[in-house]
Amino acid sequence: MLAELDSERFCDQAPAQVWATLLDEGRYLCSISSMYRILRERHEVRERRRVARHPAHLKPELVATGPNQVWSWDITKLRGPHKWTWFHLYVMLDIHSRLVVGWCVAPRESASLAEAMMASAIEDHDVDPAGLSIHADRGSSMTSKRVAHLLADLGVTRSHSRPHQSNDNPFSEAQFKTLKYCPAFPERFASLEHARAFCAGSSTTTTSRTVTRASACTPPQTCTSGAWRRFEHGVAPPFSTPLTRRTRTGS
Prior knowledge:
- The chain has 251 residues and is α/β, with parallel strands linked by helices.
- It is 30% helix and 14% strand.
- It folds into two domains: 2-41, no CATH class; 70-227, CATH 3.30.420.10.
- The N and C termini lie far apart (86 Å).
């Protein structure tokens, strides 16, 4: 059977064609599945077409041991006054302190707006670009040439999520969830000015009093300035309130 399959007559034909041709000639040597088994045992069955082979993408791992080492940014949509009307919220976050280093609300998603926000954030916080890494997903604005050229010119290291992986940018996604699950978050924004005013007053998009377990319940500004080190010596953190004992009510 192997000699027949490897012969010049059948070497370019599939086992089903070989089986049918031999059957037309009145010869039955084995079944089609047996032909595949014989060829498979000798590693003679493979994909002959030029199939694209995508390399395995490594999971991005960025470590921040202090502020202004790794920033994460993303864009989310905010409902406008009418159906199919959206505003776009850009937020850049320092993953060490969870401090929002830059944000803006715009009527559209644009690489030029992302570039301007990024350049302004780096300048406002007086960050050394050589020691900064910026992580984002693979949205059109994040992977645009304008943003890539800006980061390359500044010497900033850029990182992107793996393709089709929605959980490779958890810091920005968690921040957006905190914002949208706020009880005061409106169902729709009446105008662009309304959206900007809400985000400006929200503790999750400004220099915030927001504390997280990841930052040991230390406010972002305190964590960024290094004042948290005083807590080790018994100094109470800012924005702290006296703890009250919880009592059970009712029967």
